[in-house]
Design a protein that fits this description.
Arc Repressor Mutant, subunit A; alpha/beta; Rossmann fold
Length: 209
Amino acid sequence: MAVSELIRVLVVDDHFVVRMGLRASLNGESDIQVVAEAGTSEEALQAYRQHRPTLVLMDVRLPGVGGIETTAAILNEFPGARILMLSTHSGEEEIYRSLRTGAGGYILKSAMREHLLSAIRMVGKGERYVDPIAASVLAARLSHRSLTARELEVLRMVAKGLSNKEIAAALNIAEITVKQHVSHVLEKLDVNDRTQAATEAMKRGIISS
């Protein structure tokens, strides 16, 4: 096989054992070769600049700057980059944000090996791949109303247990305005109280625990 036909992969995951496992598994394929690894966002950018891989296998949840933000940074510098998101989670907001950012695909770490290989080959050719489970979750996300930036900010504070008065002081806005934001959040998440809002938001991946 010509070198030009190889799918050259950069594996980005903060767990060394996971990277080693992916390297061993992928390098067993004649048309796939892991050319570099990275454990952080900064390492991923440096590795991409150095190796210019065909595809980046990107863990969604990296320490510090996350995988979605790292994907955005790579695509900003290299618009033609092909990135397949890899995650242990199927939170609808992570899937939605990943694909909206420009990733070519999303697959769960629990997927069978043949599905991962198929996803790598498809995204490596410029096609799109979305894990069937992720696809169904994404469909549900598209039917939900999006939170505004301010509502998301308020929701994060609600999840931390802050009162309306404390949120108002932190954001330098009126308490009545906070009450309105909280009301909108509850309505959009289709929940009845603040505790349910926090639980539902974490379940969907809108906020992290």
